[in-house]
Amino acid sequence: MAGARLVDVAREVGVHVGTVSRALNPATRSRVNAETAARIIDVARRLGYEVNIAGRALRTQRTQTIGALIPDLTNPLFPRIVRGVEDSLEKAGYTALIASTDNNAQRERRMIAALLSRQVDGFLIASARLEDQALEEIAQDGVPVVVLNRTSANARTSAVIADDPQGIADVMAHLVALGHERIAHVAGPGDTSTGQARLLAFEAALDRYGLKHRSELVVRAEAYSIAAGTRCMRDLFKRGKPFTAVVAGNDLLALGVLDALKENRIPCPERVSVVGFNDIDFAERMSPALTTVRVPTYELGARGAELLLDMIYREREISTVTLPVTLMIRESTAPPPLQGTGLFGL
């Protein structure tokens, strides 16, 4: 089995990858039961496992550093996550080496390689995509990884996420209670778990309230950005289909939605209500103040760091922690306009 990975040896022996790593490292072999270590060495030899000279799997000592990958440091969501990470790591004597991937897969791969060359003890990754090859590779190599705010379909990693489905369910319950029936959705990028989960939750809510699925009222953003939100709203306007409310995939998209409404002199919430997701720092200072779902971003970072340290020191099994969210009702939502006074004569 040429090119076998650490995880292949662990699976064959029936032990944790961390145990395999220690058994194959002369400096830490004494920490493994002698019989188990001998069996691991035998299986590794039989499978053709070779120690990765780049140091991706076997390390002789901990460096007390963690690699933290963030998709976009200019996004107001992430500074609070990073602060939670740093505060938790500091208590344990650890330091985070923070890198921004700019939502680029090649850059992410380069950042991971650079951090591995510095022998970080593990990774906190907030830039994961649904199909993330680089993430899958480091997870398979036995490097401790915790994903923050997102998950990956192809990599088995621990994660700390917000309860996205419940957040969207609360949003839709609020809008339906106000009287909205034609609700548009500016969905997040399709290659992110948050974009997918929130879209699926939106569709599930339509079914729950007996509202018609209207594909013309769903538009997918290519990025979580203000500009993408504006482009999506312009697209909705061109389609010429009536709606009285917009559920945006996050607050930056919601801000873009508000900008597009202002471009067209459409008052919010008098003619169109808008809801965001995340509750970034200036959401309540928007005009109008944004109704949105509050995600406990600081706790995401703090719990993620704690979970990662648990994996490093206690070989904790892969797990997912889901944190509760809160709907923050502000000025950007109101009952729909009277018949004949809304968009497109609604």
Give the helices and strands as they follow along the chain: HHHEHEHEHEEHEHEHEHEEHEE
By helix and strand content, what is the structural category?
alpha/beta
Query: How is the biggest beta sheet arranged?
Result: 6 strands, parallel
How much of the residues is beta strand, in percent? Answer: 5-15%
In the predicted model, the low-confidence regions spanning at least 5 consecutive residues are 53-60
Number of helices: 11
User: From the alpha-carbon coordinates, what is the Rg to the nearest angstrom?
Assistant: 23 Å
What's the total number of strands? 12
Mean pLDDT, rounded to whole units? 89
Judging from the principal axes of the Cα atoms, what is the shape?
elongated
Q: Helical residue percent? A: 40-55%
Termini Cα gap: 65 Å
Strands of the widest sheet, in order across it, are: 2-1-3-4-5-11
What would you say this structure looks like, in words?
This protein has helices spanning 6-13, 17-23, 34-47, 77-91, 105-117, 133-140, 164-178, 193-208, 226-239, 251-263, 297-314, and strands at 65-70, 95-100, 123-125, 145-148, 158-162, 183-187, 218-220, 245-248, 273-275, 292-294, 320-323, 326-328. With 346 residues, the chain is an alpha/beta fold. Helix 1 crosses helix 2 (17-23), helix 4 packs parallel to helix 11 (297-314) and helix 7 packs parallel to helix 8 (193-208). The longest helix is centred in the last third of the chain and has 18 residues, at 297-314. The radius of gyration is 23 Å and the shape is elongated.
